[in-house]
Amino acid sequence: MVLRVITGVRAPPPSKKNNASSNAKESPRVVDGTPGTASEIARRKSERHRTFGWVDTDPGLEVQELDPNIVLNEHGIPERVMLSYLKGEIEGEAAVKNLPAAILLIVWFFLMNLSHEQPDSIHSVEKSIDYDIYENANFAFSSPLYMGHKNFQDVNTFADWYSWMNLGFSAIYFPTSSAVSEGSSSVLPDMTFGEASMYLQHNRKIGGVKLVQQRLVDAECKNPTVAHAMELDPCFQFEGLDLRLKPTELDVSQEDLVESRASTTVEWMDYLMEFPNVTVGSQLRDLELSRWLNNRTYRVKVSFMTYNAYYDMLTTTSIHFMFAISGRIFKQITHRSVILEAHSTFESWLYEVLFFGHILVLFLNEGFEAICCIREHKCRLVEAWKSYWNFWNVVDWVSILLAFAILITWISQNIGQAELSADLQTYIPVHSACRLSASTASADCAVARAYDEKLFEDMEQLGYVIRTNRWISGFYPVCIMMRLFKAFAAQPRLAIVTKTLALAANDLTHFGIVFLSIFFAYVAMGMAFFGREVESFASFDRASLALLRALMGDFSVEDMELRGRPVAFFFFGTYMMAAVLLLLNMLIAILMDVYGQVAAGSRTSESLWHECYDIVRRGIKKWTGGHTPLDQVVKSYVAARGEDAWESEQVISVKDVMDAVPGLDRAQAEAEMTSALEEYAQENAPHIELSEVISTMGKYLAPKQEVPESPLRSVLDVTRCAEAVAPNENVSEAAQELVKAGLSVEVLLRAAGIILDNGAQRSDNGKAQVSALRHVVSSAEILCSEDKTIMMLGPQRSASLTSY
To answer: Which of 308, 445, 504, 674 places its Cα 20 to 30 Å from the Cα of 436?
Structure first.
């Protein structure tokens, strides 16, 4: 044992023949008549080993390192220890086997979602339309009408809106002739029907332009007395989108106009190529003369539809003008795009089959597990319910249900796409009949108008389905990540993140209370200081987001300076010191402290590659008939011994396990039980304090009555005279001298905190071994020189021993 600790070489186990002499050497040497006489020593009971608590050992050897093979053969193993190890191995194998499936689920979902969305194609078309509206739909031209100085973002009055519609939007969407280069006097002929029906060269116009207006409704004034005195009653109120602050694109698209409202009106702008005897200018002039826009106008949406044959994409573009009650006009562009052919390639079908097939397998597995749980509890549903539901099963069922929700919305989307595709196939015949009629009041044009209205309405409804599918698909990766954490949980090397968060949960909770208190205090402070001047602090959600961004380093001090530099310095400086320099670093310190503990504990566990090797090795042995599956071993053993075996401290041998599990090979039983002891030893290694070492030395080690020469001095000389890198012979010689001195090197090594790693990374460097030995010998020499009677056991030494 001593040689193994110092040199890293396993010492041969002592034979039974030498046990007596070995025990005599370790027994305390005391003078007759003292409480430590032979009769007292014989009466003293044997001690329990500090790691293997069921093993009896001689006094003074409670912390010696024991060979798991010897422990198994001579002392056995508790049932609880063995079953706990086998359960961990089964869970580890299941986790490793489920890991590829969890990763493949991400791959199938990613590929399927990419084939459904085709974001690159949709982005290309939508941003091309945005760019054309921003850059080319201009008004406020200067002579000689070559350059427009304003775009739709500069629409600030009703007159501006009519000017933009007449000069800006009509020029890009309703052209009648091709444009010529600047300064040219040439005149190109009018566009043909094919040219005029295209937008941006490759997008076919579908129907006319739809104008939808939402109007304010009458409401009671907040201060009726003043409003009546100022002759301002009745007052107005809005329905739907709140325009006190500038809305985002998501806000505008979520709070879309509901045309069925009584406060909503719809107009259509037709162009000559589709409808006879109409001009865009005359229609806009009629709207302006009728004062279509007035003080009740709240929102106006200009919508048009295009189809791109190359991408098979139908797109509805809406230009929103939002007239806030405060007087400001907000502008925003939104799109709804859909690929009409949902399965244009074989890959799209393949990815769907793989993903939803994977989900179906998960559903069947979870259903089978639930049924087995009900049978196990003999159809007692309440007990089965409590036993079955845990956090990971909730994650599994949420991921399954969300996947089915994606499937349902995707099927609804496919049905809508098929209907739109079928409707577009009759577009040309319907509008050709209207185009050949005498006027827009004809029956054919009425049919064409109804056709366009239905087309826009179907596209709007399909847009809601697509948006729902996108929202569910956007959150679904969270479930996939949780399933990955489930697969990682049983593998210590992969479960570092989850274990770190779990162990730090209590500290993080208390930290979160402190952090949120300070954070929301600064949110309130920011709204009070900058809410009127800075838009990012004008509301609670915007202020919270602004401070979160500042926490990550994204901030704008220039906006804060609008309120004054002293206020900005006070707010920003104190927030940076309190939230960033103090709280954020405390959060990192909490996590890193727990992470260090988790990482240190996982170093002794098997790596992922080693577990894969074990699975392959066991699979090969099972295939050749030399291995019994571990789950079958546990099931057979528990059936033979009863459920109490999971918590039983009864010590069993290899024969007991083989008797309980028929067909179990002896080599497999010994290998698994030995591995269980090795893992148990790693997890339960004792921590020895220096005071305990002194107490142990005082109880069980006694000096010889006549010592002509101190062995410690010779040992110390050996270590001091050793070379920088000493051979193992010198180390072994020094260790033997310590044994002759009757000192427990294992105890001294652990007390000094110098424990040579006996794992895979064990160092064979003689210099490190001699340095450790020198430290041990020096510690022992100091103890013995300061109190030469420390090894004498007697009642008169108890007080001094304790105080030492």
So the answer is: 308
Contact 157, 297 (CB under 8 A): no
Nearest CA to 544 out of 529, 532, 526, 561 is that of 526
Please write the tens of the pLDDT for every residue from 168-183. 999 899 887 777 777 7
70, part of any domain: no
Task: Report the number of distinct structural domains present in the chain.
Answer: 5
Q: To 10 degrees, what angle do helices 505-530 and 585-602 make?
A: 160
Torsion angle in degrees (nearest 10) through CA of 180, 184, 186, 188 = 0
Distances (CA, A) of 322 to 165, 328, 454, 532: 15, 8, 25, 21
Q: In angstroms, rounded to a whole number, what is the distance separating the alpha carbons of residues 695 and 122?
A: 78
For residue 418, give its domain range.
Answer: 344-483
Read off the pTM. Answer: 0.71
Domain boundary (457, 483, 509) is at 483
Residue 489 within a domain:
no
Q: What string of DSSP letters covers 218-236? A: EE--SSHHHHHHTT-PSEE
690 with 679, same domain: the answer is no
Q: Distance between CA 548 and CA 545 in Å, rounded?
A: 5
210, β-bridge pairs: 268, 303
Render pLDDT for 458-478 as a digit per residue (tens, 0 to 9): 999 999 999 999 999 999 999
509 and 579 fall within a common domain: yes
Are the CB atoms for 54 and 76 separated by under 8 Å? Answer: yes
Q: Which two tokens stand for residue 551?
A: 């926490």
CATH code (residue 507): 1.10.287
Instruction: Please indicate, yes or no, whether residues 335 and 380 belong to a single structural domain of this protein.
Output: no
Residues contacting 491, CB < 8 A, separation 6+: 92, 95, 96, 99, 608, 611
Assess if residue 28 is contained within a domain.
yes
The pair of structure tokens assigned to 52 is: 């293997």
